[in-house]
Amino acid sequence: MQHCEIIQEAIQRHKDMIVCKKETSHQSPDNSDKVHVFTQLNIEISTKQCDSHRTLNDDGSYKITINQTIGTIQANTTWGALNGLITFYEVHFAENDTKMENNATRVIEDQPRFPYRGIFLNTAHNFLSPLQIKKHLDLMSYNKFNVLHWCLADKTYWSLKLKRYPALTEQRASSSDHVYNSDEIEDIIQYARLRGILIIPEFNTHSYMEILSQIHDEDLKVLREDQSKTDIYQFMKAIFDEIKQIFKNESYIHISTVEINTPFYSSNSHIRKFAEEKHRNNTSELLKHYFTKIFEILQENGINAMFGQEYLDAGFELSPESVIEIRRNSSIPTYLSKAISQSHRFVKQMNHSDPCVLEADEITQKRLIGYEWGFDEDCNDQSDDLLRSWSKASVILRKLWILPETVHTEGSQIQ
Question: Domain Beta-hexosaminidase eukaryotic type N-terminal, which positions (predicted)?
Answer without folding.
Answer: 4-88
